[in-house]
Specification:
It is a single chain. Helices cover 53% and strands 0% of the residues. The protein is mainly alpha-helical. It has a single domain, classed as ACP-like (Non-ribosomal Peptide Synthetase Peptidyl Carrier Protein, Chain A, Orthogonal Bundle), CATH 1.10.1200.10. The radius of gyration is 11 Å and the shape is globular. 12% of the residues are buried.
Amino acid sequence: MDRQQLRQQVLQELQHIAPELEPEALRSDRPLRDEVDLDSMDWLRFLGALHRRLGVNIPESDYHKLDSLDALIAYLEPHLT
């Protein structure tokens, strides 16, 4: 899977959690939770959905690394099998 396909899959899961999201308006270098206005439960549901969809386990100790869409994609990319 290339980076663009990964981004699309992440955005699809994000839209399930935040259906009002307009992906084209999302700034990928800004804090994702602020951009999409996700509370902590939404954030956990989103990460769980990514785990189910992509098969990537994201330990809680790594959550701080996932502050933006760009950072999330960069984290997920090498973990895909």
